[in-house]
Amino acid sequence: MNEDCGACGIHFERESGYFSMSIFIAYVMAAVISIPVMVFVYLYQLPSHWYYLAPSILIVLFIPALFRYSRIIWLYLDEWLDPRDTPI
Ligand SMILES: [Zn+2]
To answer: Any residues with CB less than 8 A from the CB of 70 and at least 6 apart, and which?
Structure first.
């Protein structure tokens, strides 16, 4: 991730540990992705135990997207809750 915005030059990380909250957002996003798969695997009682690894495999595949989009969501959420003097 870039440290500063390429368009307006604003510094994304306001303080050290600024993106810690994005970990929680990524957790919620991972739950949204994996819980429907878990419910599907449980309800249909799929024959092989390998199907039960599907939610974990999905999360591993989505790690790059979860990492980036959770930070973006946190940036916009934080800007909405505590706006800066200059817009993002
Ligand atoms: Zn910008």
So the answer is: 22, 23, 25, 26, 29
Q: If you measure from the C-alpha of residue 86 to the centroid of ligand 1, how many angstroms do you get, rounded to a whole number?
A: 9
45, amino acid identity:
Q
| Domain assignments of the chain as residue spans, ordered by start | 18-81
Query: 50-67 pLDDT, tens per residue?
Result: 888 888 999 999 999 999
Q: What is the pLDDT of residue 88?
A: 55
Q: Cα of 43 to ligand 1 centre, how many Å? A: 46
Cα(8) to centroid of ligand 1, in Å? 4
